Amino acid sequence: MGYGAILPRCIRVFRSLYPSIPVVMAAGGTKARQKVEPDCQENVDSLREVLRKDAKTGEQIKDVPDKALRRFLRAHLTVPEAHKVYVKCEKWRQKYGVENIKPEDPAIQSELATGKGIILEERDKMGRPIILVTVHLHDTKNRDMDVLTKFTVYMLETLSNMSDQGEIDNICVLFDMKDFSLRNMDYQFVKTLIMLLQRYFPERLGVCLIVNAPTLFSGCWLIIRPWLDERTRKKVAFVYSEEELSEYIGVDALPRTLF
């Protein structure tokens, strides 16, 4: 059997296995595979159409911008998987009451009062909103996990709404590790934060800056690092000087307590 007869069969098999990757004509009349990004407009349109036909999401999908769908596609690569996760995410948001969490909520007020998590007035050099987490203000033995989770959801939702106002719809998380001790190391919360970002705020994290990390934290990082997927690990940067940090955030935007 000649090449000309085998090639069409190979193309049909490839299309059946990888329907989201088109096969196009290359120069000279031969067939070639063209790699496309998972968040290409074709996939965005396909995801929107699937969600429009879904009884769970059909009503509100018309108000969802393309860039929101692109985040789900970048995180989950295929239209079917992005559809499944999007539906689960919307179900969780309604059940948890994300849009009903207000700053005057006692749980939010109690966490805001600690000062361990604040949103800075300025944005980073990419235009992303910044949350500064002062780690030594967190005491693992003196916290309510439900309250802390609610506060984290509130802050992520607030930051997400802020990021939607700019061209880049993700956020900058800045952990200040100065004066860190093991009483501040809350593995349960770290797992919860990772879960929230991956399941319910996909691709919202633009960069995670870990500043002033002491040697003591290196052992903690060895435990945490495997919990992150490769895409997220690439967004984490350890920063040890104001000069390094200024590559991400303007000096005027930084609290003077950092260095």
Automatic annotation (TrEMBL):
InterPro entries to which the protein is assigned, alphabetical: CRAL-TRIO_dom (IPR001251), CRAL-TRIO_dom_sf (IPR036865), CRAL/TRIO_N_dom_sf (IPR036273), PITP/CRAL-TRIO (IPR052432)
Entries under SUPFAM superfamilies matching the protein: CRAL/TRIO domain (SSF52087), CRAL/TRIO N-terminal domain (SSF46938)
Domain CRAL-TRIO: 105-259
UniProt-listed Pfam families: CRAL_TRIO
PANTHER family: PHOSPHATIDYLINOSITOL TRANSFER PROTEIN CSR1, PHOSPHATIDYLINOSITOL TRANSFER PROTEIN CSR1-RELATED
Stated name of the protein: CRAL-TRIO domain-containing protein C589.09, mitochondrial-like
